[in-house]
Each structure stands twice: as structure tokens, then as C-alpha cells.
Amino acid sequence: MSVATKTVCVTGASGYIASWLVKFLLQRGYTVKASVRDTNDPKRTQHLLALGGAKERLHLIKANLMEEGSFDAVVDGCDGVFHTASPFYHATSDTQAELIDPALKGTLNVLGSCAKSPSIKRVVLTSSIAAVAYNGKPRTPEVVVDETWWSNPEVLKQMQQWYVLSKTLAEDAAWKFVKDRGIDLVTINPAMVIGPLLQPTLNTSAAAILSLINDDPKRTQHLLALDGAKERLHLIKANLMEEGSFDAVVDGCDGVFHTASPSYYATADPQAELIDPALKGTLNVLGSCAKSPSIKRVVLTSSIAAVAYNGKPRTPEVIVDETWWSNPEVLKQMQVSVLRFLFE
């Protein structure tokens, strides 16, 4: 069968990866049936309809991840399915309804529709590095992360990494679903996804990277809105990892409150993303303070983490005071970040 006679489905077609899939498939001569949440929303459809070959071979179909059977018409008659549709954001008021259910139930609903269509030869599921990266095992340079690795749902719940949990549960459920149904399933596990945009809005990965180099109003608007800010608040850009970066910030000050330090649990590089900014950042701030004779006191925001983990029993009669320190070796064994101990 030639490419010209083949039809392929792409779910979540307005997203970053899916938009590029649609573009490449059309370029190669495929007919594409693409699902979107709202076919009347130009932000989700205009960039797709403007693609070469779209007028002749692109069919946009409204579908809902949470509705069983909603994808029956989308996948019907297709030779293959790219399932990319899944919510990707970290701030949510209802993680079950907004993240986990659409990822897990949505994947099962799409696969359920695929199981009804005898024409489908393969399903490609966009999973994530999130589904394999968080299981408590050490990831040293010699470790090979392969299909035997899975993120641990219990670990993820403790870490409150709900997006990561959604991708883990969805991929696991997909493999279990196809096991006895004869569906040829392939999963891909991308990390950060960046590059030229087809859709009019930033994808989550690109937005995260852009926030590192652009001024982010989310970091400043609430401060500038405070009483007296217009007259007496001076916002100054500084980098924890740059020696001397805080010289201008602390110059002429009577006191310094040093609170800046990363505080999160899910990281691919604890040394670069957690320990170095906390430890070197604190030393850089103190180095700047040492150059300013006006400074009378520095207040450092440490954490209970700096004293709580040393292997000693904490019975009711024990007094935890300034003589207690968390033990870095104990923390490494527990895979708990040692940064609070180190920088204090």
C-alpha cells in the first residue's frame, strides 16, 4: 500500500509535538485525521489548517479524552495512531480531575477505540521521561535506564509530583491494555521538548526555558503592587551562581535576609539544580556582604532539614538544638537533598 492511500490519526493535534507530526505526515503524503478539543477555536486549528496539504488531506475532529467512544470516529479506518493528547502543567487545583484522569482514562479510551478498528497496525504513545526517572534508584553514569525502569507511584505521591504520576500511570496502563489485544504499541519518552513553534502559544517545555532568560511578571507583579513599592522598592537582577552578582544588591544595606534557595524534590541533576545554588549561592551572598561595611546582620533562612536527619533517635525527651546537624552520609543513603545542611 502506498503512502498516498494511508490514513493516520494524531490525537491532541493542537499541541507542540502533535502539530509537527501533522505537518510531517502531510508533507509525506498521508491523510491525517486529527483530534482537537474544539474545532471552532482558531488558536487550536488555524496553524493546522494553514499547513501544506491540509485542505486536501487533513480532517479535524472534535474528541474528548474523558468520553468513552469519543475517538471511535477519529481512529476508524486509520493505519496508525499517534496518541499525544495529555495535559501538561504543574499548577492545578484538582490533580485527579485535571491531570491524572485525562492522562490515564484518556489513554485507555483512545486504546479502546483502537481495539475496535481492525485497520490499525500500530499505536505510538507519547509518554515521558517522567515515567522512568523517579524510582529511588541511583542514576550513576554507568546505569542504563531502559524499559525495565518505572517511576514509583508511591514515591511520586510523597513528592507530590502529579504530572509525573499521570504519565507513569498512563504508560503502565497502556502496556497492560494492549497485552492481550494484539495492538502493536510503541512508546516514546521525551524529556524537554523545544524548537520552532507551529502553534500560537508556548508549549510547557519552551515556556520553562524562556522563563530563565526573560523577565517573568509572575515573579514581580505581586511585589510591585505592595504599599510603598513605587517609592521604596528596588528590584535588582542577581544570580546565585555568579560571584559578585549580589554586590550591588547588598551595597549600602544595614541588614540582609538571605532566603534564595531552590526548594523542590524532582530534579535530574541534584548537584547542579539543588546543591550548588544553595551552597555556592549562600557563599556568594555572604561574600558580597563581607565587602559592605554598612551591613550589621545577615539572617539566613535555613530549614529543619539541616538538623532532622542524623540517625539519632528523636524521642520526646530529646532536645534538638544548635549542636544537632543532619548527617550528609545519611541523607545520601536516603536520597534526600543535603543542600540545607551544606549551606548552613
UniProtKB/TrEMBL annotation:
Transmembrane segments: none annotated. It comes from the Eukaryota. Pathway: Pigment biosynthesis; anthocyanin biosynthesis. It is an enzyme of class 1 (oxidoreductase). Residues 235-311 form the 3-beta hydroxysteroid dehydrogenase/isomerase domain. Its EC number is 1.1.1.219, 1.1.1.234. GO terms for molecular function: dihydroflavanol 4-reductase activity; flavanone 4-reductase activity. Gene3D superfamilies: NAD(P)-binding Rossmann-like Domain (3.40.50.720). It catalyses: a (2R,3S,4S)-leucoanthocyanidin + NADP(+) = a (2R,3R)-dihydroflavonol + NADPH + H(+); (2S)-flavan-4-ol + NADP(+) = (2S)-flavanone + NADPH + H(+). InterPro entries: 3Beta_OHSteriod_DH/Estase (IPR002225), Epimerase_deHydtase (IPR001509), NAD(P)-bd_dom_sf (IPR036291), NAD(P)_dehydrat-like (IPR050425). Residues 8-205 form the NAD-dependent epimerase/dehydratase domain. GO terms for biological process: flavonoid biosynthetic process; steroid biosynthetic process. Keywords: Flavonoid biosynthesis, NADP, Oxidoreductase. Bifunctional enzyme involved in flavonoid metabolism. Belongs to the 3-beta-HSD family. Belongs to the NAD(P)-dependent epimerase/dehydratase family. Dihydroflavonol-4-reductase subfamily. This is Dihydroflavonol 4-reductase.
